[in-house]
Amino acid sequence: MKELMGVINLDHELDQLNELTYFRCGAAVPFAGRYRLIDFVMSNMMHAGILDIALFVRRKYRSLLDHLGEGKPWDLDRKRGGLFVLPPDWNDPTDVSTGELQHIHNNLDFFERGSARYVVYSGSQHLSNVDFCDAYAYHLEQGADVTLIYTKTQQIRPEHQACTRLDVDENGRVTDIHLEREHPNLYMEMFIMEKNMFLHLVRQCIAHGESHFFRDAIQKNRRKLNIAGYEYKGYHAVINSLESYYRNSLDLLKPDTYHSLFREQPVHTKIKYEVPAKYLNTADVSNSLVANGCQIGGTVDGSILFRGVQVKEGARIHNSIIMQKCIIEEDVVLENVILDKDVVISRGRKLQGDIRKPFVVAKDTAI
């Protein structure tokens, strides 16, 4: 849709997944056997026909750049527009902006050159399949200055504690923005706003020494702005801790949960051509996601195996997440474990975590 341009802001997202974010930002963490967390919001914007997407990054983004490339899987490798990965520019001696507003101020040309009239702004920690076209139509129907996208949760989980909450009246207007932990309306860190108003509020915030757009431009001005709330009713997961990553990953082993995330529209990711998974005569696999390129000779139950994992004969894996190209030698036992990429577990080792707190092994480790 030519009326919309996308902004994915990773600046305020802390690297809270412990060992999984030692060498990468949270948006680049692998998920669901073949994806990265960034893929979900990128795919949502692609399905909305958004042709210009800016990605604001500040730290540990080498892995993310390698994954995104020129944006071809999301149809963003174009001569005009496409994907723009924008680290902050430190070379302007007159720049007085701070925080995430520094990204916007130092990359104003992205907004000024784009022909789109509206900005779709998002982070990467809320996994969903939001229809931005429907949210945009709702925004126009409401005649709002800004439309905040939220969802109603049926169960408050620990990862929801950090989420902002919205009070929304019967007319769809946001009447309050707060942090009441037991409130079910979770703001998904996504909004739609007219581009000129967005840039006006950015300049206003910078002039007053502010640093955070949502807090300083929207939340503090909630009495002055016409703020609409668009309710999203599909799959939703917040990945902002190791525990939430582990639990939401294994939840995908439930068919209904898996289909609610992937059935409505495909999620695009970096393409890798590998042979299908190979199951040896000694393999016993049940209730698991197994990516292509794997070779399995042991027992795998209730687990997720990424591309190229080798599970040797006699090994047993239960309730675990094994990332790309890990090697599990003979007679290894893994239970409630997360192995990052390229980990080697030597013969006869036993690693066991707790279902509430998995044992994690960092990338490129040999045990």
TrEMBL record:
Coiled-coil annotated residue ranges, if any: none
Enzyme class: transferase
Signal sequence range: none
Ranges for domain Glucose-1-phosphate adenylyltransferase/Bifunctional protein GlmU-like C-terminal hexapeptide: 282-350
Ranges of residues in domain Nucleotidyl transferase: 16-177
Pfam families for this protein: Hexapep_GlmU, NTP_transferase
Keyword Transcription among record annotations: no
Claim: Acetylation is one of the keywords in the record: no
EC number(s) stated in the UniProt entry for this protein: 2.7.7.27
Assigned keywords, A-Z: Glycogen biosynthesis, Nucleotidyltransferase, Transferase
Listed GO MF terms: glucose-1-phosphate adenylyltransferase activity
UniProt record similarity statement: Belongs to the bacterial/plant glucose-1-phosphate adenylyltransferase family.
Full protein name: Glucose-1-phosphate adenylyltransferase subunit GlgD
Organism of derivation: Paenibacillus chibensis
Record lineage: Bacteria, Bacillati, Bacillota, Bacilli, Bacillales
Gene encoding the protein: glgD
